[in-house]
Amino acid sequence: MPTSDYDPACLPDLLPLYYRRLFPFSQYYRWLTYGGVSKSYFQNREFSFTLKDDIYVRYQSFSTQNELEKEIQKMNPYKIDIGAVYSHRPSQHNTVKSGAFQALEKELVFDIDMTDYDDVRSCCSAADICSKCWTLMTIAIRILDRALREDFGFQHLLWVYSGRRGVHCWVCDEAARKLSVTARSAVAEYLSLVKGGEETVRKVVLSDPIHPFISQSLGVVENYFNKYAIVDQELLASKESVDRVLSLLPEDVRKELLVHYQNEKNPVNRWGILTDLVNQKREMSSKKGGYFEKEIMLQYCYPRLDVNVSKGVNHLLKSPFSIHPKTGRVSVPIDVRNVDKFNPFEVPTISLLCEELDKSRADEEEDGIKNNETQSAERRKIRDYKRTSLAKYIKLFDQFLDAMAHTRKGEILKKSDLQKEF
Amino acid sequence: MQFTRRTKKVALGSNPELYGHCLQLYGQPPLESVSLVQFETFAVERLKLLKSVENLGVSYVKMSDDYQKKLSTELCSLNFPHRTSVEDKNQTGSTEYEKRRKDHISHFILRLAYCQTEDLRRWFIQQEMDLFRYRFSILSAKYKTEFLHRNNLKYDTISIEEKKTLKDELINSSYGISGATIAEQEFYRVPFQDALDLVRLRKVFLQVGYAYIPHQDIVTIVLNDFRTRLSKALALTARSLPAVQSDERLQPLLNHLSHAYVGQDYSFQKNIGKVSLEQIDPLSTTSFPLCMRQLHKALREQHHLRHGGRMQYGLFLKGVGLTLEQALQFWRAEFVKGKVDSEKFDKAYAYSIRHMFGKEGKRTDYTPYSCMKVILSNPPSQGDYHGCPFRHSDPELLKQKLQSYKISPGGLVQILDLVKGMHYQLACQKYFELTHSVEDAGFSLNHPNQYFTESQKLLGGGKEVKKEVEPPQRGQEIAGSNAQSAPTQSPKVQALDKMGDLESFFLDE
């Protein structure tokens, strides 16, 4: 398939087609109205568009799905971001008294970006990714998804591929949308284990007792560590990488290991020696702590969150189904149940989708006589995306929306039951 | 608020029910009359107390032994309630009852003074909470329980069976709880939103949205209650404020009180245009605090700084005296040496620099970060060079760096000891003393720009500054450079306009 041939120069030609025939406006609107609890919920939501030449238009807002659709089709934004639900319509933010215009609610969001792992991956750097380092994202999703559900009790998590080198998570439960800035930062800090900037070598420090959340997270990392870190990233193969791992260990362990490593070159065995030695030292010592092998595993594999994105209620985040202008790939939902199978390089690009659309249109014209001409444009559009490789991702999105609707229904029933009791 | 309906009569007689416990949640405003003199004394003394709470929180680890000892001394010397029994009488003669009354009334007066802006509210709540935490935690178990009863605070406890099933999780998530002590402890189950301080530090077990809190940590939930109530009350008070402000006896006093906490904000107007771009390199080694020297070095080497670094360093330079034009020139010159070309700089970075100078967006004229902000908020992560080197560096790296900056071995030990004791600002001050070869810096460091100003004073770099003709304000600004002495001398000079927008400032980051 000539799929990967996306050329950024073609984007302006492809976007009109994408927004006219493929972008799932009705699901998108269904998502952001949240069952229509409050009419202004959609209307007071900020959207922001990035246009050609990085022109940034903030504080867009729309009354209806139709209005949103028309505006997007008119502007053909290179990128769409979603912001908070405000106290007033964002498009009119200049008309209200300053101070009165405030961000009230937003999904709790997480942004994990591969560039933050540059010191611990040897395969690529900066914006590049490969199937090797993508494992880091898989680990991140598994760890955070578990914690957000089991520890924090959230149910409606939408995981999205950012289109280039990372993933986003939108926690859409009502309780999550209403969290204060303080609560968001507390959640984000609970979930952050890797701390420190360029001036810190040992970025994970564990102390006794190990919190259940950390044990659970370690359990996830353990499933991947040998294959990912030792084999794929060759953590203990070269002298430089060995030095970097050993710098995380205390002096005595480091010296002993260097002696062992002179005779043992196999990375898997080297890791075995390291863990044995650390465990042995820990058992002999009367002091608590000393979980050095665990710290190494976490420093190399634990998700690195951009805490500032999660903290702010008014922080913007790239919208699902927006196109990444550099790669042309669509920001598609990720199926968490099959997260190991997700491959960012299989995510359709806008050029592929438009090609598929052309092809299906050609087929259609062949048996065009049977076509009922009164078909509404809406129905044609549904059929449009169903013929492209976007279909399975929109189906995932639909399932996510159905689950939320189900929960809402349950809550309404519960409420009315309660009312009857009184 | 009741203060507006003041009469000259002094209500006599005591109210034992209101002051039956040494700690209160300040649910009921005082209804008695207070003389203006007492009104002022009470308010000023509570303000002194809250300022000590703030200072102690910076110099010591909160709730450490030293912190508690000092705070206890403060409470005693300012005559605030500090004991559980009402009969106690101390040397100065105030009865415990009088102290409790003073605690009550002074709290409500400061509510009036500190409800006006988001920034003031935030400061007031923070100090009151720290004070409350200390006072609650020193209560004996009996008085804690009594406090809960008295204030009708009830929290869900978990059953013995549940405790058994969750035994391991509970032990591993709380400090100081073992298999032996778990049976005796009551565990409370509250929505995690009510125990954020414990959640943040991962000091509590979480399951499906609920936090399981051992009785020993109940102060967290009580504090959360206290915060919620206080924050609501302040919002309500703010609404009735116009009525209070129309009282010409109170209005100046309240304004004066609320300006007292801010301290020097090192806004840039007074220094503007005093520094040329060529001076930055030499100044960075002689007069910049370590955090800024680190950022400057990183910028020169990487030709780039991430957002946190640009904010911390950019605002510092603004405080040092760069004009907007200079700042744009400075950042552009460095960035274009790296991966960013001039066009991209104008698109992606120039906006944020103009924003810093209040020329974009909300047009807030941002003030440089204080040490507190640098130490406490937005810690550096991968690729970042900002933060406080004493707080955010590995001790080993810090040691090497200080050695390379020719700090004597003796001085090095002193600094590292302070760092170990988490006295980051004192460590920085020690660094100042060592690099400027003075015995005693003679100021208490709380702002990177203060470090710079003091350094310039010592090195005589202030000469240029003195040449400028701008007489009346300057004197006050210099006098105000010590935060402690500022409030009485220049209540009006300290820019009021800096406060209103603080919230947007935090949100914008």
UniProtKB/TrEMBL annotation, chain A:
Catalytic EC class: transferase
Presence of keyword Metal-binding: yes
Matching SUPFAM superfamilies: Prim-pol domain
Entry keyword annotation includes Zinc: yes
Catalyzed reaction equations: ssDNA + n NTP = ssDNA/pppN(pN)n-1 hybrid + (n-1) diphosphate
Keyword vocabulary terms for this entry: DNA replication, DNA-directed RNA polymerase, Metal-binding, Nucleotidyltransferase, Primosome, Transcription, Transferase, Zinc
Protein name according to UniProt: DNA primase
UniProtKB/TrEMBL annotation, chain B:
Domain of life: Eukaryota
Domain DNA primase large subunit C-terminal as annotated: residue spans: 282-452
Biased composition (Polar residues): 479-492
One GO CC term, this protein: alpha DNA polymerase:primase complex
Cofactor needs: [4Fe-4S] cluster
Region feature (Disordered): 462-494
Sorted UniProt keywords: 4Fe-4S, DNA replication, DNA-binding, Iron, Iron-sulfur, Metal-binding, Primosome
Annotated [4Fe-4S] cluster binding sites: C291, C371, C388, C428
GO molecular function, one term: 4 iron, 4 sulfur cluster binding
Subunit relationships: Heterodimer of a catalytic subunit PRIM1 and a regulatory subunit PRIM2, also known as the DNA primase complex. Interacts via (C-terminus) with PRIM1. Component of the alpha DNA polymerase complex (also known as the alpha DNA polymerase-primase complex) consisting of four subunits: the catalytic subunit POLA1, the regulatory subunit POLA2, and the primase complex subunits PRIM1 and PRIM2 respectively. Within the complex, POLA1 directly interacts with PRIM2.
Protein family (similarity comment): Belongs to the eukaryotic-type primase large subunit family.
Cited function: Regulatory subunit of the DNA primase complex and component of the DNA polymerase alpha complex (also known as the alpha DNA polymerase-primase complex) which play an essential role in the initiation of DNA synthesis. The primase subunit of the polymerase alpha complex initiates DNA synthesis by oligomerising short RNA primers on both leading and lagging strands.
Protein name from the UniProt record: DNA primase large subunit
Organism from which the protein derives: Electrophorus electricus (Electric eel)
UniProt gene name: PRIM2
